[in-house]
Amino acid sequence: METAVAEKGRRRTADPCSGHVLVEREQEIDVLRGVVGDLVSGTPRTVLLRGPGGAGRSALLRWTRTHAETAGCRVLVGRCSRGETARRFGLVAQLDPLRQGDSEDLATTMKATLLEDAARRPLLLLLDDVQWIDRASARWLRSMITRPAHRPVAVVFAVTDPFARDWQEYGIRSLPAAMTVRRLRPLSEPAVLAVLRARAGDTIDPGTAHVVAESTGGRPALVHDAADLLAAGPHPCGEAELVRRCAEAFADRAAALVAGLPTELADLVRVLALEPGNLDFELVCALAGVRTMSPAEARELVSGLALGAGGTPLAPAADRILTGLDAQHRADLYARAATIAHRGALPDQDVARLLLRARPIGERWVVETLCREATRARNVREFGTAVELLARALREPLDDLRRAVLEIDLAIASTPDSPLAGERLLRRVLLREGGPDLVDVRLDAADLLVAKGDDVEARSAIGTACGRAGVTPAERAALSALYWIADDASHDVTEFELPVSVDQPGRPDGPDEAGVAAWQLAVRGVDLAATRALAMTALEGETRLVTSQVLVCRTLMLTDDSTEALAGLGRAIALAQERGSGVLGAVAHLARGKVHARDGRFEEAAADLETALAQHPRQCWHPVALPGLVAFEAVLALERGHVSLAESLLDVEWEPRARRGFGWAQVLLAQGVLDLHRDRPADAVTHLRECGRRLLARGWTNPALLGWRALTAIALRALGRQEEAAALIMEELGLAGRWGTRTAVGSGHLVASLVLTGAEAEQHCAEAVRLLRGSAWRFRYAQALAELARYRVSSGAIGEALDLLLESDQLAGEFGSLHLAEHLRATAARIGDLLSPTERRITELAGCGLSNVDIATQLAVSRRTVEWHLSGIYRKTGVTRRHQLRALLDLAVVEEGERDDAGA
């Protein structure tokens, strides 16, 4: 079919002016050819060509002129325009330029002359855009076409679609013969392909024709523009560029058409262009001030313009159509449209879209609508849209409190794409003068500044705020606490004094001060009882500061109060959600992930980490805060067996300022752990000692915070520097004893068992199991069980070792730790190596529940042989009960295949 249409298009005639082929206009050309033929034979005809702009009406008129002149007819051509609607006899003057004037006598004389000449030579009038004819010319034309039927005068009108009905009715009422009406249809895709190939060559494929047909609506004028584009230049036009240029051409023609419309109709189209399709049409008519026609008539006229789908302007055309309005008029129209949309209960999304371009309205519903829609946009991570909506809301008249709240919301929405802009807004709110009603808002701003991680900016702004006159004691206390929570700066920076004495933990009055005092005691590793009391006071107190709650829960993690820490972090997460802040939520989730990881719940820790990154993507983290995040990711990856992932996380180019905070000490620790995994003990010592140096510079000596001494001791032992390793581990044990939690002391003994040797090491391990049993750090208890099982196997207490292994294995299954599982498998394999192949097979069958008789039958041996082997198995392994054989199976020490797979 495409080929047939293309061939037919090549044979068909072309526009004599442009040379464009007239495809799918065969029926119209036949009609026009018939008009000329009838005219030559003395029969008058009247034809109306109708269609939207760019449908090819003018091209058909040009073809008709050439054909009629060739047939010997006299052809007079006129084209009306909007600019000449007020000029009397403007069209008449075009028909005979030699006769100029605007008098009735001249027009009457011209009519008589034309009719007289028509008797000798057929006359054809070709009139384009007749919808713009002036009144005087319209009267003259009516007298011409209501002539006696024997006069050979034919008329062909071309009218833009919205106005064609009037001319059809005019013809029915006035003409002696019926008017022939031809509506020009859009070109089909095969026809578009024919046009494109005729202009740009046969290489044009049907897919390109489809794109052009969709982009132009099949209008011949636009299709020919696209054909010219494809034919120009040596480089083919890509699909996206083709669509864009077709849309531009469409918009140009639409804007030109609207500019020529009557004022009332043009205003109506412009209002539709403000928000196409979303407003009730009757409301649109009211907004545009339509008075001379009904909404139904107006809809028909607009639909006839064919500016887009459903009669409303397409997006590319809408902007061009609106260029005729000045900015103030446009803003007023948007404001009126938004008001009508709000009263019509349209969805917030539609009303907000109008408000974005409207002038300030000064009504309460405006800000409420914009804020609701901004919240929706932020929830679906459309942060740019949320910023735009909130910025628009701030243009409305607002009191100080509402303005400050909106500025904080705008700062939150700005964080993902423009973090610096968000920080400037927060600083502005924090430093704003105002009464007691602004206290909470200023504290919210300070809380967010601290959470963002820029310690220098946060401490500078908070310090300035504390120094303002009129700050209440309660506000100053909360700001002072936040100042110290942001304490990630280098310690050569001058700091103002915090009005809280950490030497007197009972002194702080508010929960935020108590939380800071508890943290400062905890990192120094002194006075566990006072630290716990202060932390619990802070946890139970009323505070709106998320970072303060997070700090308290980090302290409770160090005091072995994980249950309370998790409960507090749950409340902090809920508060962050209530405030709609992704960065506050991320900080709280990251802290909860660390509590989960410390307790061995690595899947929960990974889930919290994933949520933190979802709420505050990696690229949004401040360079000072980012190292803490990456360090936790890396350590978690190592614990889950993803060594390469941990290496890639740590192998990045860090900004210089990233090295100044506590997060950098965590990166150094993670790098040291990675070095140990990669068997690089010397590098591990370097990284871990630097980590320790940075912590000691702060006076942070608590081994429960970051166990750099223990890891350094393990690395030193690997290097053969046993005395240094032993000295470090003794220092670790001393500091852990001073702090006094079961996990800190138990962990110190566990590491001592890894660094020291012989009976001393085994005693430390047994002490670690005793201390960690029933402690909050169950994962570390499982590690201690596995390590003690290794010692018991070496000392020959196989039965006890199996019980230890089984208990540890149950915990390992709960935690999902790959390293712990490998440790258990290696220790259990040592037990399995004590057995011969036959004893392993019997152990397997007995562990599966088979009786001695069944085992003998399956192995084709006597029952006594099985009993003899089982006695040897019990003697070698120390097993005294048959269920312990099952434990050997659970630990995969019997099946060689499983051990081989694990090794692989």
TrEMBL record:
Name of a matching Pfam family: GerE
Any one Gene Ontology BP term: regulation of DNA-templated transcription
Domain HTH luxR-type: 828-893
Keyword flag ATP-binding: yes
Protein keywords: ATP-binding, Nucleotide-binding, TPR repeat
InterPro entries linked: AAA_16, P-loop_NTPase, Sig_transdc_resp-reg_C-effctor, TPR-like_helical_dom_sf, TPR_rpt, Tscrpt_reg_LuxR_C, WH-like_DNA-bd_sf
Alphabetical list of Gene3D superfamilies matching this protein: Tetratricopeptide repeat domain, Winged helix-like DNA-binding domain superfamily/Winged helix DNA-binding domain
Highest taxon listed in the record's lineage: Bacteria
Residue windows of the TPR repeats: 586-619
One example GO MF annotation: ATP binding
A cellular-component GO term for this protein: cytoplasm
Protein name per the record: AAA family ATPase
